[in-house]
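Human: I hope this is not a bother. Would you mind checking the protein record under this note? Thank you for your patience.
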Amino acid sequence: MNPNPPTQASQPSGWEAQCVAECRSSCEKVAMATKGLGAIGLETEDAVQLLLLEVVAACRLWAVQNVEKPPKAYLNCAIRRRNMKLWSEIQRANKRKAIDDFEIDEVIDDNRDDGFDHVQDLERQDSLRIVDHALRMHLSPADYTLIRLRADGWSNREIAVKAGIQTKSADVGGRVRRKVYEAKQRAKDVLTAVGIESVEDAVLASTETRNAVWEAQP
């Protein structure tokens, strides 16, 4: 461990504001190219601000030993470094899903009230119908609606309009994906509380387990 690490300047230098202004366009392009921000609760502008904060930190570190403005390559490196951290956070968030989007969607999609299209699979339909009704009971109407609309194949903008989510945002898709993801996480909590972590678990669940779903608290 270095006993004398470089000290970061606590005050902005004369060229810091200029560097931030010059880097904003680059930060916006990087943020817009970063897919999956909704998984960590961010919108595009949130990511832009985080990247600009990294530019500020790089400027102040540079100012400790330099009086001239840092080169653009140095600042671009700082932006890329912070963006890599964002990517890592998104990947970790996606890996934490115990029930993936397909599984929750399948539970909902297989239990529409439009008649049985798969007569030969009544037992599976029966099991999933119980889970679907349990989710309907224990989730808020808003959460259940979000999951149902996604399972029905509605687009992000269509879901936003139906669910009353602000559609004027430039990143309406990210907002919808984040809200759907959060709703599915709450659905997962209801099911995992009684040991159901996949669609097949639901199909093979014992009578006791399925009855427990009805009593589970979100």
